[in-house]
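Re: weekly structure request thread

Next one in the queue (872 aa):
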Amino acid sequence: MDEFTRRKLMASSAAAAIGMGALGTASAADTDTPGAPTVRGDLKRLATTARGAEVTGPFVFENGEVLFSLQHPSRDNPAPYDTAAVGVLAGHRFDFNGQNDEFDELEAPRSKAAQGRVQVAGGEYDILVQAGDPIDGGDAKWGHPETPDGTDIAEFAGSRYGDVGTNPDMNFFVPTDDEGLEGYLFTNNETSPGSITRTPLSRGADGWTADHEAAMNLENQPAFRELGGTRINCYGDLSPWETPMSSEEDYSHPRVSGSAMVSDMVDAESGVGLRGGAAFWNRPNPTAIEGALGDLFEDSWYPQGTWALGGVEMQAYYLGAEPVDQDGTTNTTEPLGEGYPNRYRYGHIVEITEPTSEEPIPVKHYVMGRAAFECPEFMPDERTVYLASDGSSKGLYKFVAEEPIPSYDDRMDVRGTLYVARVTNDDAAANEPPAEVDLEIEWLALGTASNAEVASWIADYDDVTQVDYLETHAETDWQTDLETALAEADEEVAINGNRDYITDAEILEWATQYEERGPDGVDEELRRVPFLETRAAAKEIGASIEFRKAEGIDSLDDAKPGDFLYVGISELNDGMADDEGAVRMERVDGGVVYRAELESDYDVSTLEPVVVGPDATDRESIVDAAPINVDNVLVLKDGRVLLCEDKGNFGRSYTNDALWVYEPPTSLHVDSVAVSQEATGEAELTLSSVPDGLAGGRISVTLEHTDVAEITGASYHDALELTTDPTISDDGSTVEFQFADIEDEIEPGAMDVTLATVEIEGVGSGTTDIVTDVQALDDDEGTAIEAHPRPGVVVTGPPPIGGGTGGGAPTDPDGDGRFEDLNGNGRLDYDDVTLLFEHIEDDSVTLNADAYDFNDNGRIDYDDIDELYDEQ
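Done, posted below.
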């Protein structure tokens, strides 16, 4: 009796100590937030879904036609809109001119008939394939996984993660011809076990058609089953080398609920009120744990992610486990043994290699960590990957491979470092409106490994079953008294954790060693922690695991530094709008779309809000016309962005979700430049687009620190006929331009319009911002162009060191801000390596650490010499 009373006390006190609520995190009501809604740019509604359906899986073909999934529509809709589907927006085609004036905006669906179907601006939704359609010679159903003996998973009783086949999401098309009009469509289906379907598509004179006969559920192929299959396949990406990347959105991965940390549970000597759903993965009938906890503890709680344990037992049947828990239409608590799925095999990025072969081969990129990954974004350098995780109190992640990923002969050899974001600016924690606050982020390294290493760590848990849950954690023999044994095991796991997997103590020991030795200095047996328990590990080292429903992330396929990475936060509440942590903003239930400018090494450091949704309390007329709960985002080749809603109702006069086209504002960009001392470089001043032409304007460019660099010259672009001489200030800090395009050389719709060039001379080592100020800027209609300023950075290199062959000041050959050419001869060679080695302790090196910190650890050390040598 005393123990039970103590448990009840722990349940209330531990949860109360960190502000946990029913949903995991305390969060204020969504009141009238300034700047909600806000759109920086132009926005038009292109399509609306049928009632009950999300807009998911957008894809744009090379010819400009658009495709998306009709996910879980209401069964009350008229056919065919009562069944999940994938279809093309027939009649609409993007011209890729960067402007939204190419189509008339779709009116909101007002009638019941309009709300029951998919509507498209200037066209129709042409359905290609629907859930349950016979495929693969009629032997299978589209989107339906099967057991090894061919039994449809839909035939089993028990908890599910959604109805089988009703949640199509990701769509990416891999062409097999030069025109991009024939090929294979790869579609995810959010279910457990997961489903990735390959459907042949071709376009003829009458539009796109699907070959159902030749379509196949990849999940039912042996290569997939050997990996444990996939689970909850959500959105994804098409890699630069044209392989589909499927995200396993395993919501059941949280080890702790909400903002709680493993250290909180250890300090409280109990996980009651704090522990997440992952602890109950191998519990018999795992989704029943919430009710069981209610019977055990007076102050029960909802372990975050428990609902997503639905379908875990279906995963076991898919893998071939004997369904001993099936009793007619009832799912019992008889424990499943051999063949039970390993929880660490899910929550990964799955690459479909050899996508056009007879049997595509899946590869799980285990080294990219585990989360409820909604989507990745593989950057054009083929090394950098950004990863967004759905749900509450989640992280933003980045992976950087040591070599381009397709260069590895064996994908299991892919090796690199996993990072997590930490928000650093005080404004983000000052309860300000999201529309007014950028998020400044830094990246914390979690660890370095290869796919093969992480796979070997995961394999250590392959034999864990539901039998182990009972035999590890219960004193009573489950074969004698299953009910009592299950209650004992639930109690023990709730308080002390599940000892069948990585323990709380191991995570805390990893975090302690991380703080003392850095990510690469932890004991060998602990290196697995950040890759298998990514979210829990990241929390312990101070990462910002506060993001809410990060459901979209994308950039241009050929993005380069200066372009943008877009991130969709479907709802800005819970961990982003509470009273703790690094992110504490005013709540906006309508969500926010951020963008981040790509830096020289495909890094990002600032997220700026560009689309802010409405408050839940806003009046109907506002929410009817504003984007709400943006989920997937897709950047078109002209820089516009498709925004897909997943909103439910949200107080609109219509219930339908919408597909919006966002046209970013014109930006005025000035180049970053690296120069040597007493040498000069050039920075161009460029407008990203001029939809309505350019009449003229007056603009100034300023260097903030003239002890680093000075402006020594300037010139106009040849297209500008009427100009005044550029005026440079006496101290070399500012130059002013005044111009007019009297000959209309710059036409409406022009992109990347260079206006002028600024000559900059290095004065002293260091960095200075180079910023623009628009006094006037007008288009051909006489309307002011509201150009969004994009500053640059000038890096002036250090003075000469040693007596190198070139004899000049060091230079930065690749423009990355590091001065690899130490001897000043204009190239990186072995002499530069020896020069750094010989003078590593000289003031000319140690006082210019930023210039020579080639391993990016914030100091000069001998590893910088190794890194420089490897760059040759």
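Residues 4-9+37-250+347-452+544-663 form a domain with the Neuraminidase fold (CATH 2.120.10.30). Residues 704 and 769 are 6 Å apart (CA to CA).
Next request, please.
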